[in-house]
Fold this protein.
Amino acid sequence: MNTEKLSKRLETVAKYILEGARFADIGSDHAYLPCYMLKKNKASFAIAGEVVEGPYKSACTQVRQEGLSSLISVRKGNGLEVVELGEVDCITIAGMGGSLIASILEQGEKKLSTVKRLILQPNIHAYSIRVWLLENEWKLVQEEIIEEDGKIYEVLVAEQGKMVFEDKINADAVLLLGPFLMKEKNNIFQKKWTSEIKNWQRILTKLKAAPDSEENKQKKEELIAKISLVEEVLLDETN
């Protein structure tokens, strides 16, 4: 991967950035995404944010070598600390856990009032992001699930607005599986959740063999409910 050719994961993120946007890439690492977008004239300005010294220096070097220092501002700081209110209209956060992404959004929530779009790519726990979006009046406008190098990733695209669930759709299923993904139910989606069910069933078998306790009982009930929920979606031909 380089600034000319992104990974499939980052290419998917890139295609949802608004044309000509001023955007902030949080956790930018080598600033590959900002450099790619500016070199292709797909964005007008970018912030590459990093909290760790090593990746921050790598991003600075990359931007300087590409001759993009006037168009990409590399900044060191925690999450949305690197962004000023009204400075960008699009934010990308990719390659982190869903809980961490939700935490970054929560801590920087005041910076989001002028942002038009969020493009979020969690490595795990997309559920945490969907819950945050719902509670903070951001609506999903698109989702995509991809596989690269044996790993499965979800990309969530959100804009300001209230998330509304269809009457026939289980809200818990929507938050866990994603409204767009569970409707499409492509092969990668089915592969991911079939694997998750098998993993949950293995855990459930171990819990059943363990000594009884209130905590054990609660975990078993939660797993049984999740297995049932996902199996119902996978088997439902009307979705």
